Amino acid sequence: MHLTLHLEQVLVTAGGRITCQRCTAQSKRTKLQCGIAALKGKTKCGFHGGRSTGPKTPEGRVRCAQAKTIHGNDTRADRAEHSKKMAEIRDLEALGFQIGLLSGSRFAGRKPKSRG
Ligand SMILES: [Zn+2]
pTM of whole model > 0.70? Predict the structure, then answer.
Protein backbone atom coordinates (compact mmCIF):
# COMPACT_ATOMS: atom_id res chain seq x y z
CA MET A 1 0.00 0.00 0.00
CA HIS A 2 1.13 3.49 -0.84
CA LEU A 3 1.18 6.31 1.63
CA THR A 4 -1.05 9.26 0.92
CA LEU A 5 0.21 10.98 -2.17
CA HIS A 6 0.24 14.74 -2.20
CA LEU A 7 -1.94 15.70 -5.12
CA GLU A 8 -1.48 18.83 -7.15
CA GLN A 9 -4.91 20.10 -8.03
CA VAL A 10 -3.84 22.53 -10.71
CA LEU A 11 -1.60 22.24 -13.69
CA VAL A 12 0.09 25.25 -15.18
CA THR A 13 1.00 24.81 -18.80
CA ALA A 14 1.83 26.73 -21.94
CA GLY A 15 4.50 28.73 -20.13
CA GLY A 16 2.19 29.78 -17.32
CA ARG A 17 -0.53 31.03 -19.62
CA ILE A 18 -2.93 28.18 -18.94
CA THR A 19 -3.97 27.02 -15.49
CA CYS A 20 -6.25 24.03 -15.38
CA GLN A 21 -7.39 21.09 -13.29
CA ARG A 22 -4.73 18.37 -13.10
CA CYS A 23 -5.59 14.68 -13.25
CA THR A 24 -5.45 13.34 -9.68
CA ALA A 25 -4.81 9.71 -10.66
CA GLN A 26 -1.67 7.91 -9.54
CA SER A 27 0.42 6.30 -12.26
CA LYS A 28 0.72 2.53 -11.89
CA ARG A 29 4.12 2.65 -13.55
CA THR A 30 5.87 5.58 -11.89
CA LYS A 31 3.70 5.77 -8.74
CA LEU A 32 3.57 9.51 -9.32
CA GLN A 33 0.59 11.70 -9.99
CA CYS A 34 -0.58 11.73 -13.60
CA GLY A 35 0.79 14.75 -15.37
CA ILE A 36 -2.01 15.32 -17.82
CA ALA A 37 -4.72 17.93 -17.50
CA ALA A 38 -8.06 16.61 -16.27
CA LEU A 39 -11.08 16.72 -18.52
CA LYS A 40 -13.33 19.74 -18.29
CA GLY A 41 -15.39 19.58 -15.10
CA LYS A 42 -13.70 16.34 -13.99
CA THR A 43 -10.82 15.42 -11.72
CA LYS A 44 -9.35 12.76 -14.02
CA CYS A 45 -7.93 12.70 -17.51
CA GLY A 46 -9.30 10.56 -20.30
CA PHE A 47 -6.83 7.76 -19.54
CA HIS A 48 -7.83 7.51 -15.91
CA GLY A 49 -11.58 7.23 -16.13
CA GLY A 50 -12.46 10.87 -16.73
CA ARG A 51 -14.69 9.82 -19.60
CA SER A 52 -16.52 7.27 -17.49
CA THR A 53 -20.16 8.03 -16.81
CA GLY A 54 -20.61 5.17 -14.34
CA PRO A 55 -22.53 1.91 -14.63
CA LYS A 56 -25.45 2.08 -17.05
CA THR A 57 -26.99 -1.39 -17.19
CA PRO A 58 -29.27 -2.46 -14.30
CA GLU A 59 -26.88 -5.33 -13.44
CA GLY A 60 -23.93 -2.98 -13.44
CA ARG A 61 -25.71 -0.49 -11.19
CA VAL A 62 -26.64 -3.26 -8.74
CA ARG A 63 -23.05 -4.51 -8.71
CA CYS A 64 -21.80 -1.00 -8.04
CA ALA A 65 -24.34 -0.43 -5.27
CA GLN A 66 -23.32 -3.67 -3.57
CA ALA A 67 -19.64 -2.93 -3.90
CA LYS A 68 -19.96 0.49 -2.29
CA THR A 69 -22.20 -0.52 0.61
CA ILE A 70 -19.44 -0.10 3.17
CA HIS A 71 -17.47 3.13 3.35
CA GLY A 72 -15.54 3.42 6.58
CA ASN A 73 -17.15 1.59 9.47
CA ASP A 74 -20.77 2.60 8.98
CA THR A 75 -23.31 0.85 6.82
CA ARG A 76 -26.41 2.08 5.03
CA ALA A 77 -28.48 0.69 7.93
CA ASP A 78 -26.33 2.63 10.40
CA ARG A 79 -26.77 5.83 8.42
CA ALA A 80 -30.53 5.31 8.13
CA GLU A 81 -30.68 4.75 11.89
CA HIS A 82 -28.58 7.84 12.53
CA SER A 83 -30.73 9.91 10.21
CA LYS A 84 -33.88 8.69 11.96
CA LYS A 85 -32.50 9.54 15.40
CA MET A 86 -31.38 12.96 14.21
CA ALA A 87 -34.89 13.57 12.90
CA GLU A 88 -36.23 12.66 16.36
CA ILE A 89 -33.78 15.03 18.02
CA ARG A 90 -34.86 17.76 15.60
CA ASP A 91 -38.49 17.16 16.49
CA LEU A 92 -37.68 17.33 20.21
CA GLU A 93 -35.69 20.50 19.62
CA ALA A 94 -38.59 22.06 17.74
CA LEU A 95 -40.90 21.12 20.61
CA GLY A 96 -38.43 22.58 23.11
CA PHE A 97 -38.44 25.88 21.28
CA GLN A 98 -42.23 25.81 20.98
CA ILE A 99 -42.85 25.49 24.71
CA GLY A 100 -40.07 27.90 25.57
CA LEU A 101 -37.81 25.30 27.15
CA LEU A 102 -35.01 26.01 24.73
CA SER A 103 -33.69 29.30 23.43
CA GLY A 104 -30.80 30.54 21.40
CA SER A 105 -29.32 28.91 18.36
CA ARG A 106 -30.57 25.78 16.70
CA PHE A 107 -28.61 22.69 15.80
CA ALA A 108 -26.09 23.14 13.05
CA GLY A 109 -26.36 21.31 9.77
CA ARG A 110 -29.02 20.54 7.25
CA LYS A 111 -32.39 19.06 8.07
CA PRO A 112 -32.50 15.26 7.89
CA LYS A 113 -34.28 13.89 4.86
CA SER A 114 -35.93 10.87 6.43
CA ARG A 115 -38.88 11.39 8.75
CA GLY A 116 -40.46 8.72 10.95
ZN1 LIG B 1 -4.55 10.87 -15.70
Answer: no
